[in-house]
Amino acid sequence: MTTRQHAPRHGTLLESVVQDTRYAARSLARTPGFTLAAVIALALGIGANSAILSVVSGVLLQPLPYAAPERLVTVLNKGYNPVAPASFLEWKRENRSFVQMGAAEYWTTTITGVDEPEKLYALHLTSEIFSMLGMRPMLGRVWTAGEDATGREHEIVIGHALWARRFASDSSVLGKKVVLDGNPYTIIGVMPAGFGFAPFWATHAELWAPLALDARAGDRDGSSLRVFAKLKPGVSIESARAEMAAITAHLEQEFPGTNRDMRVTDLTTQVVGNVRTPLLVILGAVAFVLLIACANVAHMLLARAARRQREIAVRVAIGASRARMIRQLLTESMLLATVGGAGGLLLARIGVRVLANEGASSIPRAATITLDSRVLAATAAITLITGILFGLVPALRASATDLSSSLKEGERGSSEGGRRNRTRNVLIASEFALALMLLVGAGLLIRSFAAMQSLNPGYDPSNVLTMVVPVTGTSSSPEGKRAAFYDALLGNIRAMPGVQSAGAVNHIPIGGDSWGLPFRVDGRPEPRAGEVPSASYKVVMPGYFATMRILVVAGREVNASDNMGAPGAVVVNEYLAHQCWPGESAIGKRVSFAKDSTGSRIWVTVVGVVHNTIHGDWTAPAEEEVFLPFGQQRDYLANPSGHFSYMTLAIRASCSTAGAQCDATRLVPAIRAAVRSLDPNVPLAEVQTMGSLVEGATARERFYLMLLTTFAGVAVALAAVGIYGVMSYAVSRRTHELGLRMALGARPQQLLASVVREGMTVAAIGGVIGVAGALAISRVMASLLFGVKATDPLTFVAVATTLGAVALVACFIPARRATRVDPLKALRAD
Asked: How many domains does one find in the chain?
């Protein structure tokens, strides 16, 4: 049997699509204003989505640059605190879930014997780490799993940036000796560009050395190790958690206080856990922006279709099928979406650069943010869905007409067809609701950020310059010389023009490390193992409190007489004083931080109480903090370790006008010269102002605020334009009706109120929906807020009032213009 083939009446499908595309292009070119407005709205929506998708893809979805990153985990106290060597070695010996387990220890070192000494950030690593990561050096070798670290402590592997900066990318660097902390080290390898470890902690490390733990196998108190492990193939993280819970429970029972709350966390979550929720919230926000843009273009197409009723009716009357009309109108919407998508990609390229720069200091893995293939594919899908989304309803509405309906709902009708009115009302209400939800989110972040900015850090960061000055491995490091070096340096700095005061501390607030120091209170019973109180401790030199303007609320601050020959002294913060001696004066009370060689407690006396200070996380609650005199701390006077042989200077610059801001960094050259005059091998590191440190402490929140307020502003603008455009068009369609009502005696004020009331009713419905939606999504935002509830009534009322005013103006202007039309002209108008 032969099959008869019928050629399509209008040629092949491809030819038909080409014809529709050409017709759509000509049609859109005839209305450049409409086309430009639609393309801009879509470009904003698609561009914002593509930019944020780039952030989500790079930060959350891009695999970590290690072998089998999904099997890498950390095992840490409370999920982020270090553990003791003895615990690590016992876990390594007893576990059956991990194919490898290694540890890292933070290390800062100073390279000397060169023209420009430099402080370097480094890590000591056990031999398993590199093979666990599957990373090979670009040059040379690394120590491998199974190698004994003993005897290799002075071998180092350097990062690519350090190799280029200090060794001019010399390929013969292998075997070269360098002096670190006064000791010779041999370079055995150079890692490739882009290698970084660990990705969530000590992220500036660019030098790695072996970590030997044999001599520390019994150390259960010195918690300094970050533990990393690799799951065996087929072993789930849940089973590894169960096994580690059993192991640590057993060890905790045998050695109380050593293995509490140990958590197994996958490495990717460890890196991006803090930003996952905020980025997904922002991704949802830009999706709202795109929906508002789609709603805008949809009712623009509805208005355009209404003006083309006669054209469509004629085409239907001469034989065009409804399917063909739908395809033609969808072709126009897809063409708009395609052009808008192209414009969106251009905006996204700019946005990605801005986001990468702005987020560099606050977003992990910001360097991976790029318009990659996944983002481009997602953008193409968004463009396709967007074209269908905003084009389908107008196409269905317009193609349902015929000549009879065109005459019934034609240009002179007293009002538009009910179906079109309902569709437009739904679009307006949805725009209003989405804009309200976005603006509530932005408002909550603004209120939260304002609450953060209003916090009193306990010190005055203005005009304060800070810098780390390490003497590790230099001629100024030995006991008897170290204190003399810092005393002389501070004396020289205080005598400089432009310096108001100067002091020193081991760890500067916000920008420095935070070490916990267990302590005992005189007269209190000995606490049980694992329940010993701990305080964040600082070692300070005279002038520090005055320079930082930390208020001494009782007693005195540290002074030059607090030396090894004087009774032990300590200054505590108000929080510790209240916790330890509630309702009493802390002055004269005694605390202990150590024992002497006979095992007896060494007691020091509280000589001062200072205001609580923010020294870590900007929004963290106050905690115990102690300040010990530099002159009484033997470790800081003599210990050769890099952990103790440095101090951080705090210098307050004087300004020509009292209370004014001045550039404290102008002092850096003179201070550098003062250091070199005392010891040319001592470097300056981490030179920064306290103001920049405080800004950095809230950088992530500022980044989120910038994004959400930007998108909320775009949403409000799009919603306002959309409401204005719809109201303007709807009123123009009612010109004949309004003219007739005025001719029959209706006053312009009545008509104005009627038209505005209709528009505001739709906005109010959208507002109710928006408030309900904002209450629902605000729960998701609760973790991003500080000092304000997710249901803050002030924010909701302010946003609703603002958007209501925007909608009122958008309704009032076209309504007022329509009521000023001459009734006779309106009655004669087509």
From this structure: 4
